[in-house]
Amino acid sequence: MSELSITTIHSTPRPTNLIRAAGLVLFALLAISPGQAEAAKEHRRVAVADPYLEMHTGPGRGYPIFHVVDRGESIEIIMQRTDWFLVRDADGDEGWVDQDQMELTMNPDGSEVDFARAGLEDFTNSKWEMGVLAGDFGGANIVSLYGGYSLNPHVSVEVWGSQILGNFSNGWTASVNVVHETWPDWRVSPFFTLGAGMIWTEPKSTIIQGEDRNDQIGHAGAGFRVYVTRRFLFRAEYKTHVVFTSRNDNEEVEEWKVGFAFFF
Amino acid sequence: MESRFRVLFLILAAQLVLSGCAATKNLFGFGRDEAPPPTAEAPGQVIDPEVERRDIKEPKIDRENFEIGAFAGIMSIEDFGTDLVYGARLAYHLTEGFFVEGTAGQTEAGLTSFESLSGGARLFEDRMLTYYNLNLGYNILPGEGFIGEKRAYNTQFYLIAGLGSTEFAEDDRFTVNFGAGLRLLLNDAWTIRLDFRDHLYDIDILGEEKTVHNLEGTLGFTFFF
Predict the structure, then answer these.
(1) Between chains, do B190 and A15 touch, taking CB under 8 Å as contact?
(2) What's the whole-model pTM score?
């Protein structure tokens, strides 16, 4: 196997001092804690139960297979990235194995291995969700980011932050929503939502008149979530907002958005 | 004579007692080999399966789907020249193909031809351009890059597009961006990212409203965690 070492993972040299220095700077800048002190860490072990296990040079189907591990051999799982596992065999060869093959290994006690893979059931039962949607807010563009927590499969609470970008004014909204899903186990799951928040608007600088405003905003809406694959979902929704302005009349704004989200 | 009988008697008694005790039955080689008592188990079963199961606590598998990093490069702002841009990005890898990424960056606008020719008259004071965007990317061409004879690095060529906002000329502007890039994986955690984007937004600062293209090319490091 050593002749093939050009394409093996571990032929990749360790980062040079320069890279390491840059890395340290990045570390300091971004204040991230997880290090690469892998040596002392204990990894999960499984045994190959299929005739062989294929190791790829990278975490993807396109990367070539450079090594195979025979049946019965024990492997260490160093990490997981998406549906790929970085494993090390008894000889110290490291490579990436896809989840379908990893499912065919055995635990040290002989039981079958089950690596959790997100599916339709998780779409219904997962606790957390995060997504990005964009669309139209009363004629202006809107970009939204949200995070949600499910109290149960039917009811979840969401926090939204949006930026509104229009021809005449820009603004931000922040709101808290309660979402009710009537049939959460359906692949296309409709929902209803109610919420309240704040809206900050400022007219564009090229417009002479106008002043910045902070108003309360309330909304009701409906939409649907569609399970796509893995942890992915598509979401589309319509909301009708009432802006409680300090003027005589309240403003009504219609909003529709589409986007994607993932759950975990 | 009497003591010899006593010894024999004692040996017999000891043998009887010991043979009654299963644990010591064959301890001294006494007693016959008896057939095992009939049970419902299969004839080949030798090991008693009712062993107390060891409580194995399997170490958790480290999941590294997030990618964080910083970058620097050049960005051209249409009509306002080209300057250094720098920023940060955070990505989450959903599958081997798809990833979502948020990026924020900053650059400074130069002078338009009008501003430099008119001598002093500025269209606006705050010359900083700040943008953020939320994107969906797809690793379309996984591959390998060879540097010299002995080094090979995994690479990923990706396409990326998204929405966001650009704060420029004292206003926030809805911005669409798209582009492509190359990720060079130095090892299982660190990567070098080369990235090219086009940022599009509408602006009317020079009279008529028009859609502008701001081209950006950056180089950066990212770290998987």
Answers:
(1) yes
(2) 0.72
Assigned CATH class of B66-224: mainly beta
Q: Which residue of B has its CA nearest to A34?
A: B225
Which residue, chain included where needed, has tokens 């000891």? B14
Give the whole-angstrom CA distance, residue A78 versus residue A86: 5
Tell me what percent of the residues of chain B surpass a pLDDT of 70: 76
Strand partners, A170: A165, A202
Domain span holding position A166:
122-263
Smallest CA–CA distance from A96 into chain B, residue: B188
Condensed to tens digits (0 to 9), the pLDDT of residues B57-108 reads 677 788 888 999 999 999 999 888 899 999 999 999 888 888 999 999 999 9
pLDDT digits (tens, 9 = 90+) for A181-231: 999 889 999 999 999 999 998 887 766 666 778 889 999 999 999 998 878
User: Residue A218: which CATH number?
Assistant: 2.40.160.20
HEC string of A31-93 equals CCCCCCCCCCCCCEEEEECCCEEEEECCCCCCCCEEEEEECCCEEEEEEEECCEEEEECCCCC
Element of type H or E holding B61: none
CATH of the domain at A70: 2.30.30.40
Whole-number pLDDT of residue B36 = 54
Q: Which residue of A has its CA nearest to B94?
A: A82
Residue A2 near residue B193 (C-beta atoms within 8 A): no
- The answer to whether residue A116 is domain-embedded is no
Q: Which of B142, B144, B186 sits opposite A15 (nearest CB)?
A: B186
Given A26, A82, A84, which is nearest B69 (Cβ)? A26
Q: Measure CB to CB from residue B225 to each of A32, A61, A141 and give the nearest one.
A: A32
Give contacts of A12 with chain B, Cβ < 8 Å.
151-154, 185-187
**Over chain B, what is the mean pLDDT?**
82
Substitution target in A87, A128, A132, A212 with the highest count of B β-carbons within 10 Å is: A132
A133 shares its domain with A249: yes
Shortest Cα distance, chain B CAs vs residue A124, angstroms: 18
Contacts of B61 in chain A (CB under 8 A): 43-44, 77, 79-80, 85, 115
